[in-house]
Amino acid sequence: MKTGYLIKRANAEPLIISQFQNPKTSESWDPMEKFRWDTAETPQAGEIENIDRTLFSQIDAGIDRWIQDAKYFPRLFLSAGAFLVIYFALSFAVRDPIPVIDEFIAGAAGAVAVWFFMEKKARRSDASIKRRLELKQRISEAEIVISHEMSGIENWIDDLGSLSVLEIADCIVRCNGSDLKGLELPAGDFPKLLFEQVSLRIGKLMDQLPRIEHARMDTDANIPLNGFLVQAGQKSPSDLVLLALAVKVKEIASVS
């Protein structure tokens, strides 16, 4: 059974963390595997519908990616073949004052048309539709599990979010005697999936992780890094809290 995680945040949209968030992993999705949600409290009816819509969209994006990867070379060869056939057919059949140009444009247009026709056909294939429906059915049947670890994570996020941007930055880099609070993580793939979700959301901030890890081990304050985080936090405090969560999760679970 695969587990997804729902994290509500006081001043931002909830975090919906699951195996379906990264379309690059779609090849490994198992339509027969059951699914469940770990959450601090039972979602309301409207919240469940919004969560399902989000995951349905992620599943569609992932299946599209899976189809594109699986059918890439057949589409490439057929598109190239269409280009060559049209190019040489027009070269021998049509005489024009400016050779090559017309044939090249017509061949390229034909190749593009074949490419998109095959892609559209693959998306509507029986295998694609079956896999979409099976995965979405698993989501619709998902079990809701109340977890005290998820409640603790929500409280951790809310407590950190109540601080000023400067105080959050100090906690992240262990400056002025500040530090991030301890955190209990749920079992399973939570660290890996959380890290992936945060990387997808705030990739540029996550690029600073090596500097942050070094700063947290150093006794001297890293003023330039602290200033950078403060500036980033002024634009989006919730992103800074997400970064702090990723730092703490990686520290606890040694996520690679």
Provide structural commentary.
The chain has 11 helices and 4 strands, in the order βββααααβααααααα. By secondary structure, it is α/β, with parallel strands linked by helices. It folds into 2 domains: 1-146, no CATH class; 147-256, no CATH class. It has a 4-stranded mixed beta sheet, covered by helices on one side. β1 and β2 (12-17) form a beta hairpin.
Task: Briefly summarize what is shown.
With 256 residues, the protein is of the alpha/beta class.
Give the key terms.
four-stranded mixed β-sheet; alpha/beta; 256 residues; 9% strand
Arithmetic mean pLDDT? 85
Protein structure class: alpha/beta
Number of DSSP strand runs? 4
Low-confidence stretches: none
Please render the helix and strand layout as text.
Layout: E1 2-9, E2 12-17, E3 35-39, H1 45-70, H2 72-93, H3 101-123, H4 126-140, E4 143-146, H5 148-161, H6 165-173, H7 190-201, H8 203-206, H9 209-217, H10 223-235, H11 237-253
Parallel strand pairs: 1-3, 3-4
Antiparallel strand pairs: 1-2
Helix pairs in contact: 1-4, 2-3, 6-10, 6-11, 7-11, 10-11
